[in-house]
Known about the structure:
Layout: H1 3-23, H2 28-31, H3 42-71, H4 73-77, H5 80-109, H6 116-131, E1 143-148, E2 154-156, E3 171-176, H7 184-201, H8 203-214, H9 222-230, H10 232-245, H11 247-257, H12 261-264, H13 276-290, H14 294-306, H15 314-335, H16 347-351, H17 358-370, H18 373-376, H19 380-393, H20 398-443
Parallel strand pairs: 1-3
Antiparallel strand pairs: 2-3
Helix pairs in contact: 1-3, 1-5, 3-5, 6-7, 6-20, 7-10, 7-11, 8-9, 10-11, 10-13, 11-13, 11-19, 13-14, 13-15, 17-19, 19-20
Amino acid sequence: MAAVSYATWMLEQEARALLTRLERVKPFALHETMLPAANLLPAAQTGIEQYLIKGRQELRGLIQRYIGWLRGPLGQRATPAQAQRLFSLLRLRFNAVLTQFDLFNDALTQRSENEIGVWLSGLDVVSADALRLRGAYYDAPPVICYLDRGVGAAIRRARTRLPGGGENPVAVIRVPRERLVGSGIASSLVHEVGHQAAALLDLVNSLRPVLQGLQRGSGPTSAIWSLWERWISEIVADFWSVARVGIASTLGLMGVVSLPRAFVFRLNLDDPHPPPWIRVKLSCAMGQALYPHPQWERLAQLWEAYYPLGGLDAERQRNYGALQATLPGFVALLTNHRPKSLRGHSLVEALEVENRQPRRLQALYQAWSREPSKMYRSPPTLAFAVIGQARSDGRMSPEQESTILAKLLTHWALSSTLEVSAACAMQSNQRASRPAVREYTRNI
C-alpha cells in the first residue's frame, strides 16, 4: 500500500472512530436520572440541550466532509502531513465538544443525589428571583446551580464564550457544599447572581469612568479611588447581595472571609477582590445606607474586635485608614448611581430595597411564626432576608434555620416543577382542542 493511500486509509478510520464516539454522547434527557422536582426548569434544559446538539451536529458535518475530502481527488493528492493537520483540528473540536458537555454534566449529575438534587433545583428558583427586576431592564437568562468543595462561590455567566467557542446558553453557579443548608448560602449565591446582573446592566463599565474621574485629583485619596475601581466588579456583586438578602449577606460574607489574620489584611493589587477586612466593613456600610439600623454598626464593631487594626505596620494602617475615610463617599456613589441601562433609575430604586428594611423583616418573621404558610408563598430572596434577620436578632437558632431552609428549598423546587407541568398540560390541551374548536365553528 502506497504511503499516501495508507495515510488516507488510517486517517479515515480515525475520523470514522470520532463519529462513533460522538454518537455515544446523548442528550441529558436520555441518561440523567433525577426526581422530577430536581430537574432543570424548561428554559435552562432546552437552552443547554439545543446548544450541545447544535455543536454535535456541526462537528458531525465537519467529520463527514473531511471523510468525503479524503476520498475525493483533493484528499488523494494531499500529502500525509496536510491530511493529518486537518484531522488534528477536527480532534481538537471533538474535545471541545466533550469539554462543553462535561461542563454541564458536572452540574446535572448532582441532581440525582438524595435531597441535594431537589435543594439545587430550589436554589435555581432562588437565583431566578435574585436576578428578577421589575421594569424589564434586561432579558434574564436561565440559571443553574451545583455544589463543589471550597468556601467560595463562582459563576460562569450566560452569554459568555465557552471553552472551544460558542456562547453559554445559561448562567452556571458553583456554590460551596459547606454552605448547605443555612442562610449563608444566600450570601454566596446572590453575590454570583449580582455578577450576572451587573453584566446585563453594564454596571461596571458605567461606574469605572466615575471612579477614574475621582483619581485625577492631587489629594492623598486619589490612589485610594484607584483601588475601589480595581475592585468594583466584586463590590457591585456584594451590593446586589446586600440589597437582596439584607444582613444575611454580610453575615454570610463574614463566614467566608473569616480567615487567619495574615489573609484578612492582605492587600494584593492583582486580586479583584477587596481585602477581607475592608470588604466586610464595606458590606456593613452598604447595609447601613440601604437599611439604616444600629445593627450594622454593631456588626462592624464585632468585625473590628475579631481583627483589630492594632499590630499592623504603619503603611497598612495608613492604607486601611484611608479606605475607611472614603467609605461614606464611595457608598453614596453606589446608591445614587443611575446607569443608562436603568433608564434614569438608581440602583436603590431598581432593587426596591424598601421591601427589605429590618423592621419589615422582623414584622414578617412574627407574622410567619403565627402563620407559616405565608412564608412559603413569599419570594425566595425575601424569605432568606427574613430568616437571616431572625438569625441576626437571635430569634432563630442555627438548627431551626437549617430545618426551615431545607423545607423551603424543597417547596420551591416542587412548586416550580408543578407550575411548569401545569403550564405544559394547558398548552397541550389547547393544541388538542383546536381541531375540535375549528370543527365546531364550521358546524355553526
